[in-house]
Amino acid sequence: MNEIEYYFSENASVIYGREFQKKESSWFNGRSYYPSYKYRIATEKLQMVYDYLSNELLDSNTLLPSKSDYHIIKIRYKFSSDLNAGFEMMAKWFLWKLFHKKKYHVRSSNKELADYLSGNDSIRKLYAAYFDPEFSPKVKGISKEGRYVITFRFSLIRFNPEIFNLISDFLLHFESKYANPGKENQSVIS
Question: In the chain, at which residue ranges do the beta strands (DSSP E only) sit?
Answer without folding.
Answer: 21-29, 32-42, 46-53, 56-57, 66-67, 70-80, 87-91, 104-107, 138-144, 147-156
